[in-house]
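Honest question from a wet-lab person: if I give you the sequences of every part of a complex, can you actually get the arrangement of the whole thing, not just the pieces? Trying it with mine:
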Amino acid sequence: MGHPNEGKSSVVATLAEDDTVPVSPTPGETRQCRQYPVTIDGREVICFVDTPGFQNPRAALNWITRAEAAETVWLSAFVNANRENPELADECELLAPLADGAGIIFVVDGSRPVRNIDRTEMEILRLTGLPRMAVINTKDRQHGEYIEEWKNAARTHFNTIRIFDAHRASFAERMALLESLKAIDPDWQEALQTVIEAFSEDWRHRINESAAIVTELLKSVLTHKAEKTVGKAADTEEAETALAAKYQKEIAELEKQAHARIKKRFKHNIFSYDLPARSMVNQDLFSRKTWKALGLTRNQMAWAGAGIGAGIGAKADLAAAGLSFGVFTALGGALGGGSGAWGTRKIARTRIKGQSLGGIRIRVGPIRNDQLLYVIIDRALIYFWHVINWAHSRRDQPEPGWPENPELQKSLTANWSDTQRTVSKRFFKAASKNNPNVIETAAADFKGFFGGIMNQISGI
Ligand SMILES: Nc1nc2c(ncn2[C@@H]2O[C@H](COP(=O)(O)OP(=O)(O)OP(=O)(O)O)[C@@H](O)[C@H]2O)c(=O)[nH]1
Ligand SMILES: [Mg+2]
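Yes, you can. This is the full assembly:
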């Protein structure tokens, strides 16, 4: 509840994690009460009600003080008596949920001073006798200078006061708000404890599922390949380039799908962001800049580029493959002779010349180079951080420079300990083998480990 345009709907959207709640800069956006139930595992755990702003609090308070009814009794009397009264119809609409026993979260904008009209609204809410919390929401973060003034004004009217940034609240901050709601009234304790537990359990689930999504992504990347058969030796070079591009596009698509799944798991429908150009997450997965952003040295870069090639064919010659994505050129039956004989691209091409072949099979992937996998992991972690830190009330686009946390501007995997890397390496190695049991065990280990990392990220 609150005055128009203070951020009531934003608080509801953030707490209920519902990005369908209409939030807008136009005062009077919310004209009618609307319920936003939170359902976890098919069970409604709590229901938030978004209300319109007070329109005529003075007239309402006049009526109430004349009404001589005790506490909550006046609420239904007020609503019944004034529904048809145009002067108080809005107040009836917003007070109706209270007549049904709802608790109150009063939202004020801490970046503006307290006015008399606000005191009138607070007085009406005090007279309800219902459990009530004041939430000081600083719409303009540069101007939080009225927070103290608001605290003093709200103290006499509310059981508890919280400063809560509706557009930036993290999961922990949301839970802290519910915790203090819990403390207001003994009758609320048990119900709110259940709500907090349900939210926390669901949060843990989501993190586990996100870890599973990334594990699956890595598994797909580790086994992914693109293949093509060309008829003539002269066509191989062009086909190789096209195939390498196709392969990269497919890997990027796999990654995109995994990110979308994470976003969905955190109930984001409209949130879409473009990170600043310098963020590695925004780089093309295979670009030089991406490798560089990870802090690789030149050598490593060269090796990384060639490494992908190296993975492409067991015998690929690194020198020959150079910095391009190497391509394993398997020759058609006519050449035969076992793969060892024509392992490198160069040899393969020489041999192709002058031979009449049944067809040339070209394959890109599966990769053998861990660097790409670490890039994918880093990007997944950064993406995950964005998703969990974007409040459902926000309708704008992330500003340049976001995230502000410098820890997230660089590679996180680069700082992993040897032990942490070992789990990943074992998984990468296992995934390239053809033994499903080995793969599953290593994947489960990695998933567990990665869930822990995601948990840490969610606290950053
Ligand atoms: N920067 C910032 N803007 C906010 C915050 N909370 C609300 N706003 C903005 O303030 C405007 C009003 O927010 P709403 O949540 O729609 O406010 P309301 O109280 O529901 O408004 P009515 O329904 O019109 O009474 C919107 O443009 C929001 O984006 C906040 O925490 N930070
Ligand atoms: Mg609203």
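Two things worth pointing out. Residues 186-223 form the longest helix (38 residues). The chain has a mean pLDDT of 80.
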